[in-house]
Amino acid sequence: MLTKRIIPCLDIKDGRTVKGVNFLNLRDAGDPVELAAQYAEQAADELVFLDISATEQKRKTLANLVLKVAATIDIPFTVGGGISSIEDVAILLKNGADKVSINSAAVKNPELISNLSNQFGSQCIVVAVDAKKIGEKWKVHLVGGKIQTEIDLFEWVKELEHRGAGEILFTSMDHDGTKKGFANEVLSRLSEENNIPIIASGGAGNISHFVDAFTIGKADAALAASVFHFDEISIIDLKHKLKQQQIAVRI
């Protein structure tokens, strides 16, 4: 049985870690290099680094900061924000990233995912999908959730798998930062309809929410930010509780 992964997320703005609610009202959460080192020591399985304003500000991900983070950790490291070309990915992988996360650029140019997968291998291509329920449909959003598209979430994820994405990082904008639990019904459907790992994001507030994401939502990994940044949940405590629930984790 594959172990379930616990992944802290560093949302980066102006070189600092930040966290908000429903993608809004950001507050400072600390130095990303220091936090990365702490999470590596605390048995995190992976780390995700998202430069959340790179696309909106039309600039590239902070490659130098990526280099500093990579030098402090020994766990897999995914980097996203402002990535739109093979050259962007090559720089980040050279600077220590193990995987890259593509979001808005994939929607604007779906062929990019095919090209990246062919060039670097699907194992290092994560596609981040931010979605919100509009009426009865889940619609994909871009640029840090600021732009709504008419793209259906479930159809989009199927296309991404077909194009060679290695993993999907799904964030429910309706749940993000609310600490009321993950979007388990959506996660379950995504897991059932696709054959690549689904990372749950948005809504973690307590340990039972992680249990539900793995059992009800059938997620392969669960990502969270504020509950880890502000010491509301200890990763090692979380893993012990998951193990008690017969959920396979690495301790």
Secondary structure tally: strands: 12
Coarse shape: globular
What is the mean predicted local confidence, pLDDT? Answer: 89
The main pleated sheet reads as: 8 strands, parallel, barrel
Output the structural class. Answer: alpha/beta
Largest beta sheet: strand ordering: 1-4-5-6-7-10-11-12
Kindly identify the CATH topology: TIM Barrel
User: Order of SSEs, N→C?
Assistant: EEEHEHEHEHHEEEHEHEHEHH
Low-pLDDT stretches: 20-25, 55-59
Describe this structure in words.
The protein has helices at residues 32-41, 63-72, 86-94, 104-108, 111-120, 153-163, 184-193, 207-215, 226-229, 235-244, and strands at residues 5-13, 16-21, 24-30, 47-51, 77-80, 99-102, 125-134, 137-142, 147-152, 167-172, 198-201, 221-224. With 251 residues, it is an alpha/beta fold. It has one domain (5-244): TIM Barrel, CATH 3.20.20.70. Strands 1-4-5-6-7-10-11-12 form an 8-stranded parallel beta barrel, surrounded by 6 helices. The longest helix has 11 residues, at 153-163.
